[in-house]
Amino acid sequence: MDKHKRRVRHGMVKERARILVVGGGYVGMYTALRLQRKLKGELRRGEAEITVVAPDPYMTYQPFLPEAAAGSISPRHVVVPLRRVLDRCRVLVGEAESVDHAHRTAAVTTLATEEEGRGAHRMPYDEIVLAPGSVSRTLPVPGLADHGIGFRTVEEAIGLRNHVIEQMDIASSTRDPALRDAALTFVFVGGGYAGVEALGELEDMARYAARSYHNIEPDDMKWILVEASGRVLPEVGEELGRRTVTELRRRNIDVRLRTRLESCADRVAVLSDGSRFPTRTVVWTAGVRPHPLLAATDLPRTGQGRLECTPQLTVEGAPHAWAAGDAAAVPDVTAGVPGRTCAPNAQHALRQARVLGDNIAHALRGEPLETYAHRSAGSVASLGFHRGVAQIRGRRLTGYPAWFVHRAYHLSRVPTVNRKARVLAEWMLSGLFQREIVSLGSLEHPRAEFERAAGGIPPQEPPRNPKGSS
């Protein structure tokens, strides 16, 4: 009788079950949260332990990143502290470098690993949840690594906000027409949720910010969206995708479909249609790829690099291994089409996490597992203040109604009552007072001023906007 079977007796866990959750995003945090509720008694009696390994001590609610970049939400309200929410779990800030499931161990590095000089720690487990998420899918575009800006983390969102306002400061103060034109040209690559929402929110913010500049008009700025396929926002349907393009173009945003970014070297964006745009801002949101950790495991993967999973969220042919979210190819049992998998989006990730947590508890207690089945209720996207598109149970919404539904939906989904109340309060206050448009570029080099005073050389470059601007 194996160790797992020995733990189950009369529906109760008799030996300590070591559960390792890799990742602190949607799936990682919500699975751990579900487990600490379902296994409350076992955790209290010391019959189970849950360890969460995450690169950051917080979960980022990514649908709020565009609003954080636009200043509608404070950055600290976009993140959820893992230790506060997972108070009955052990949280390790670090990363899993590899997983040897045959021996039930994971190689984990933490913030102290380099200081200790001992290398990765081999962490044993009985059950493992692989939820490392995904990383940006980049292409070998010349200049992209030097000049591109991502949009997947709260740090990138706030950095992009500072950068956009800084470019307006540069354009306002320079006497060089070429530099001014490049500073006021903003190129976004990728027409999915991240690209369209980030562009919509930041263009809206910059248009508002232009009121504070005596020599910048909204029409002086060029906003360009580059999408390789023939449509944007495929999640909301073809018709709403066309309406989105129409709305963006109505705002004087240059939407270029079936077009690729071929180079951004020397701060010049070269497109596949032959266009060239001198620019100091290239935002890359052109898709994601599976996390590199998945390739460092002995678990089965699909041709796209995601873990092969069953409808019960177990990894195919690997007992005691579980996965969901971006890292997992979970069969969509509601599609009626063999081989179709669930889309790697937040809507599925949140629901999969609940079933995953329940199923691990069922497995430890020797109970039948549940099958994950969810039919999408719709999609929503924000295009700026009071602008949006939505498809809810077959109904299409645009403009203010869609924007309102977008906010209401994500307010209901953001974790913790504390976070909901803070976000709602910020939204209400933003309706009563003017937006705060200020760049805090010095946050990226907080020691630069002190190092100059001490006679040292600031790292990389001096603060680009040490006093801020408004």
Automatic annotation (TrEMBL):
InterPro entries: FAD/NAD-bd_sf, FAD/NAD-binding_dom, NDH-2. It comes from the Bacteria. Keywords: FAD, Flavoprotein, NAD, Oxidoreductase. One of its GO terms (molecular function) is NADH dehydrogenase activity. SUPFAM superfamilies: FAD/NAD(P)-binding domain. Residues 449-470 are annotated as: Disordered. Residues 18-352 form the FAD/NAD(P)-binding domain. PANTHER family: NADH DEHYDROGENASE (PTHR43706), NADH DEHYDROGENASE-LIKE PROTEIN RV1812C (PTHR43706:SF45). This is NADH dehydrogenase. It comes from Streptomyces griseoviridis. The lineage of its organism: Bacteria, Bacillati, Actinomycetota, Actinomycetes, Kitasatosporales.
